[in-house]
Design brief:
The chain is mainly alpha-helical and 223 residues long. It has seven helices and two strands, in the order βααβααααα. It is 72% helix and 4% strand. The radius of gyration is 29 Å and the shape is rod-shaped.
Length: 223
């Protein structure tokens, strides 16, 4: 399964700079204390305390998470099986909306943990790929039915009844997939828009919660 990951922002270079600055300050402080003829033991203890406390403060600072949007090549085989133009384009549109929602997660951590939100977005996007895959399998049958409407036949004919049942089953499955995809798309768009609005409107936080509750329901109904 692919994940939209919420990961710490890369700030290793800034931490390294802070450590170097701290060590330089400790070295200068040590030299000044030595010049002032302070006891060596006192100098060592004092500088060790300063260095230890400084390192603790620097290394304990955890940068806020940022969301790494999904890499298309990392999706499961099901995604790569979407070779029909319609399903392929629809999946890419859904992926773009999901990436937009994912990038907004760090700003709405009050409503949803960025890590959990990222995983949920990826899970729902994977569900969309599954639905699109099922719809893609139905497309040839639906296309043939539209090009060649059912002809009137004897209702008592076993073959006619079987064909009519097959057509009805295909139509039902197609409509079901359309409903599922519409629900997924609406929920992802709501998550993206709500996260964007939350930056300027504190009341939008509730909309973010509702959006992710809906996404959770979508995933939970199948697993």
């Amino acid at each position: 399964m692919t994940y939209l990951q919420a990961m710490p922002a890369a700030q290793s270079s800034s931490k390294m700079g802070a450590v170097i600055a701290l060590c330089t300050a400790v070295l200068i402080g040590t030299l000044l204390l030595c010049l002032s003829s302070a006891p060596v033991l006192v100098i060592l203890i004092l500088m060790a305390m300063v260095l230890g406390f400084g390192l603790l403060v620097i290394l304990s600072k955890t940068p806020p998470p940022h969301v790494v949007a999904p890499d298309e090549t990392a999706f499961p085989d099901l995604h790569h099986s979407l070779d029909k133009r319609e399903e392929r384009e629809e999946f890419l549109d859904l992926m773009a909306v999901t990436e937009q929602a994912g990038r907004g997660l760090p700003a709405v951590e009050e409503a949803i943990d960025p890590v959990e939100g990222g995983e949920l977005l990826a899970q729902v996007l994977w569900e969309a790929a599954d639905v699109l895959g099922r719809r893609q399998q139905l497309r040839p049958q639906v296309t043939r039915q539209r090009k060649h409407p059912a002809r009137a036949a004897s209702p008592s004919s076993t073959a006619s009844r079987s064909l009519a049942e097959q057509r009805e089953r295909t139509r039902t499955l197609w409509e079901q997939s359309e409903v599922e995809l519409a629900r997924i798309q609406t929920s992802l768009e709501l998550a993206a828009v709500a996260a964007h609005n939350a930056a300027d409107d504190p009341n939008a936080i509730e909309a973010v919660r509702e959006a992710y509750n809906e996404l959770s329901d979508i995933y939970g109904e199948r697993y």
